[in-house]
Give the backbone structure.
Amino acid sequence: MTQSKNITTEQRYARVLEWFAQNAPSAESELHYDNPFQLLVAVMLSAQCTDKRVNLVTPALFAAYPTPQAMAQASVEDILSYVKSVSYPNSKAQHLKAAAERLTEVYGGTVPDNIGDLQTLAGVGRKTANVICAVLWQQPTMAVDTHIFRVSERIGLTTDSKNPLQTERELTKHIPPSVIPKAHHWLLLHGRYICQARNPKCGECGIREWCRHAETR
């Protein structure tokens, strides 16, 4: 039985975060990577594509282009031959080459450690930049994808958010900075496997007790 009606927003955040901390302490990205450049490439490829598909593509891609310098020297057509099975492969191949070129020419082959510089790379928007900063450097940046946007609204961490930026601001206002990098994975994975869009698995949900959506079920 849900207690959602009887708690404040602050209490809902506290209890949801406490449950995740106890039950998913090692939550992390499901993308496979060995260094910052590989994570950047994988996150760029994951836009509107599954991590599973990206993980099938990246081993050969990373073997062919292990560094930004190597990818910068490749043609778009060559990069495309490795990523053609992901969503929007043509634009992603173009972005990967352009981003690699800028990494090489401007940043000495080093992936920037701040949102502003990351967003100067082709194909890197706020969400991707937030992921990179949170995963690589544990910065308090909350990347809001479709899962996090949906889950936050459904369980009651946000109310009537109109866009991902509103959701991001609300989440970062209530979640302690040190917890934000981990909370990104908690909410994303919860949305991917439990709080799914069409048929949420409420019977398997560990936070149902504090979920606004559970009040209606």
Summary: The chain has eleven helices and no strands.
